[in-house]
């Protein structure tokens, strides 16, 4: 029989065994309790029992026991050793989640650049071109850290991001002081018909957020940044008794070749270069509705 056929048969005998009901099938690698394997390896290492005797008593092949005694495999993970240590990968995953929670989520490219920076600094050997891992490493990294996912961010201006409960409480305290001392009419704060809440809502014309790495299951992933994009702004006001005034819609630009309020003629038209509320537009809004009952 040719040598090639003998080798092929030998390999087949090692990888397969016949089953009467289902025919030939691949024989799976047997798994051993890691705690038991570690205990038996320690006995052999301390000469408390011979390797042959331990293999026979515990039913562990000598080759497997030999690898455990000489710590050939540090864990029971299958696959090649990762470039970053377990601790380093855990810290990297925690960093990505923490950055997303504070509104500065990292993109996939930024994560890969961070890994490259680590490898550039310590010079460890790796299979990556120019020390930068690719999409295969990134996919495996996400597989090892299932709490991570890629999310589309919701843009939030930094002016809103820095708002706090203490600042809001201080604002109301200052308002009360102003009404009582400067206006001299504290009844304003006790008459619901004279208490109006006016607020502006911006609708960004650049609403698409970037995709960043965040924690799986998080309801919203915000992205903080400068609110310097053009937008539409709606200024609305309503009293504590339920009376409301028609809103003002502020458009970016000064001239229009069409009627921006078509279909909503009850609203007031405001204009500013960026579509944001400014002092001039706000004063015009106050004057426009100051005569309303």
Describe this protein's structure.
It is a single chain. The chain is an alpha/beta fold and 293 residues long. Among the domains are: 3-69, no CATH class; 156-208 and 230-289, no CATH class. The chain has helices spanning 3-15, 34-45, 51-58, 62-69, 86-101, 108-122, 135-144, 158-161, 165-183, 279-289, and strands at residues 16-19, 23-26, 148-152, 154-157, 196-204, 211-215, 222-225, 231-239, 244-252, 268-272. The strands form 4 sheets. A 4-stranded mixed β-sheet has the order 5-8-9-10, covered by helices on one side. A two-stranded antiparallel sheet has the order 1-2. Strands 3-6 form a two-stranded antiparallel ribbon. Helix 2 (34-45) packs across helix 4 (62-69). 11% of the residues are buried.
In short:
The protein is elongated, with a radius of gyration of 35 Å. Helices cover 40% and strands 20% of the residues. The protein has helices at residues 3-15, 34-45, 51-58, 62-69, 86-101, 108-122, 135-144, 158-161, 165-183, 279-289, and strands spanning 16-19, 23-26, 148-152, 154-157, 196-204, 211-215, 222-225, 231-239, 244-252, 268-272.
Could you spell the SSE succession in H and E letters? HEEHHHHHHEEHHEEEEEEH
* Overall pLDDT: 77
Assign an overall shape. elongated
Order of adjacent strands in the largest pleated sheet: 5-8-9-10
Strand runs, count: 10
The major β-sheet equals:
4 strands, mixed
Tell me the helix content: 25-40%
**End-to-end span in angstroms?**
108 Å
Class computed from helices, strands and strand pairing:
alpha/beta
Strand content: 15-25%
Which stretches are poorly predicted, pLDDT < 50 over at least 5 residues? 1-27
Q: How big is the Rg? A: 35 Å
Question: If helices are DSSP runs of H or I spanning 4 or more residues, what is the number of helices?
Answer: 10
């Amino acid at each position: 029989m040719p040598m090639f056929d003998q080798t092929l048969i030998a390999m087949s005998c090692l990888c397969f065994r016949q089953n009467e009901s289902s025919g030939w099938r691949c024989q799976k690698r047997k798994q051993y309790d890691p705690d038991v394997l570690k205990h038996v390896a320690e006995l052999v290492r301390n000469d408390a029992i011979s390797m042959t005797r331990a293999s026979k008593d515990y039913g562990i092949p000598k080759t497997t026991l030999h690898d455990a005694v000489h710590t050939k495999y540090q864990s029971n993970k299958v696959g090649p050793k990762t470039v970053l240590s377990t601790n380093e990968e855990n810290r990297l995953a925690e960093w990505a989640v923490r950055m997303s929670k504070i509104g500065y989520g990292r993109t996939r490219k930024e994560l890969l650049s961070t890994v490259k920076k680590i490898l550039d600094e310590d010079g460890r050997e790796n299979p990556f071109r120019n020390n930068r891992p690719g999409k295969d490493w990134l996919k495996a990294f996400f597989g090892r850290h299932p709490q991570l996912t890629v999310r589309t961010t919701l843009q939030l201006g930094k002016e809103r991001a820095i708002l706090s409960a203490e600042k809001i409480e201080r604002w109301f305290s200052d308002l009360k002081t102003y009404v009582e001392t400067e206006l001299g009419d504290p009844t304003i704060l006790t008459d619901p018909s004279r208490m109006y809440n006016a607020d502006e809502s911006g609708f960004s014309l650049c609403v698409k957020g970037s995709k960043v790495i965040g924690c799986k299951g998080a309801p919203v992933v915000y992205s903080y940044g400068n609110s310097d994009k053009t937008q539409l702004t709606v200024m609305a006001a309503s009293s504590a008794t339920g009376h409301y005034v028609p809103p003002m819609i502020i458009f970016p630009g000064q001239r229009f070749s069409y009627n921006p309020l078509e279909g909503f003629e009850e609203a007031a038209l405001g204009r500013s270069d960026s579509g944001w509320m400014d002092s001039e537009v706000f004063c015009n809004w106050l004057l426009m509705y100051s005569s309303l009952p």
